[in-house]
Design goal:
The chain has 337 residues and is mainly α. It is 51% helix and 7% strand. It contains 14 helices and 5 strands. The protein has helices at 20-33, 45-48, 58-72, 89-98, 103-107, 110-118, 125-128, 130-139, 153-170, 209-216, 238-246, 251-259, 265-291, 294-323, and strands at 7-12, 38-43, 80-83, 145-148, 178-181. Helix 3 (58-72) packs across helix 13, helix 4 packs across helix 8 and helix 8 crosses helix 9 (153-170). The chain is elongated. The chain binds iron/sulfur cluster. The site of iron/sulfur cluster has 13 residues, from helix 11, helix 12 and helix 13.
Length: 337
């Protein structure tokens, strides 16, 4: 990082193919941030182990996630894009930060409580330490900016607390990461709950045009519009909201045609499918090209990890020095004495 330059860090969950809600809520911001900052983007496969018990698809999911990011416009020649587990320094820093993090604080994190409730048979140590690993992710690169929506500010505040505590005990070692507030719209899925793969209400960015229509046709619309000639209320309809993201120029026309029942919901959904297909067409084409050469994608991630480790190893050496630990075995005097 050049003097005075800000560095952004973001972790991306490796859920495999990303859905259109992931794109609107995060990926498009990650792409835009590259024009302003030096960016480090990690596909956080270690984090996923806190909830996964079947890891058979983990490697594929890392690659599929990378494909969506690269196809969307992440530029690996400038941005460091890598898989979290390729940078082993993260685990050591996680351990060191865990020593300054009060367990009571972690047990009170709402996300931990929710996850513990959702998987009572698997309330593992990693789940409690999730925010510590998130903090390590950020400070391993001395990143000072983290793209977050308003709702994620409490998570960042916990990272800032851990950093302050470490700095107070061991001296100024890390910058306190700041929020780079991004506008992340809440994208609802086709059943009107938050769009999520686990709810089965999402649409993959990489879906085919036919898959796109088949998914969109299941969308809940205005519940009062029972018959074709019932007037509709676009303001309560998620299909109308989605038009705003992918074809805003169509909204005025749909607004009046829906209210006067000139247009039926099936036609409206067809229009939305066309807009989504137009929007993601170039991204899908790039993804197709990239996925034809999986080795090249793996090489991008490996190259990213190499560059990440150059920074990470320097930072970790400083951290160990601050804590009072020997930097590394070869530098220890009289190791065999
Ligand atoms: S016509 Fe479109 S905006 Fe109106 S209720 Fe049907 S899907 Fe929603």
């Amino acid at each position: 990082m050049q003097q005075g330059q800000d560095r952004v860090f973001a972790g991306i969950r490796c859920t495999g193919r990303q859905h259109i809600g992931n794109y609107l809520g995060a990926i498009q911001n990650f792409v835009a941030l590259q024009d302003k900052y030096e960016c480090v983007y990690s596909i956080v496969d270690l984090h996923s182990l806190t909830t996964l018990t079947d890891t058979e698809e983990l490697q594929d999911n890392v690659r599929e996630t990378a494909l969506d990011l690269l196809a969307s416009g992440i530029r690996p020649e400038e941005t460091i894009l890598y898989a979290q587990s390729h940078v082993p320094e993260i685990s050591e820093l996680h351990l060191l930060l865990s020593m300054v993090t009060p367990i009571g604080r972690l047990m009170n994190v709402p996300t931990f409580k929710e996850k513990a409730k959702a998987q009572p048979e698997n309330v593992n140590y990693g789940l409690v330490g999730y925010p510590v690993l998130q903090t390590a992710d950020i400070v391993l690169y001395r990143a000072n900016k983290v793209p977050v929506g308003e709702d994620q500010l409490p998570h960042l505040e916990l990272a800032r607390e851990i950093v302050r505590r470490f700095n107070n005990i061991f001296g100024d070692t890390f910058p306190e990461p700041e929020a780079e507030l991004t506008s992340a719209p809440m994208v609802l899925g086709f059943d009107n709950r938050k769009m999520s793969k686990s709810y089965g209400n999402s649409l993959d960015m990489a879906a085919t045009p036919e898959e796109t229509f088949q998914a969109i046709r299941t969308a809940i619309t205005d519940p009062q519009r029972v018959r074709r000639n019932d007037p509709g209320r676009p303001e309560v309809c998620n299909v109308y909201t989605l038009h705003g993201f992918f074809g805003p120029e169509n909204q005025p026309k749909i607004n009046s045609a829906c209210r006067s029942a000139e247009i039926g919901c099936v036609d409206c959904k067809k229009m939305l499918s066309e807009s989504v297909n137009d929007y993601f067409g170039p991204i899908r084409a790039r993804r197709e090209e990239l996925s034809a050469n999986p080795e090249a994608v793996d090489e991008i991630l490996i190259d990213g990890a190499r560059r990440a480790r150059v920074i990470a190893s320097e930072v970790l050496a400083d951290v160990k020095d601050a804590v009072g630990l020997p930097a590394s075995l070869p530098e220890m005097a009289n190791v065999n004495a």
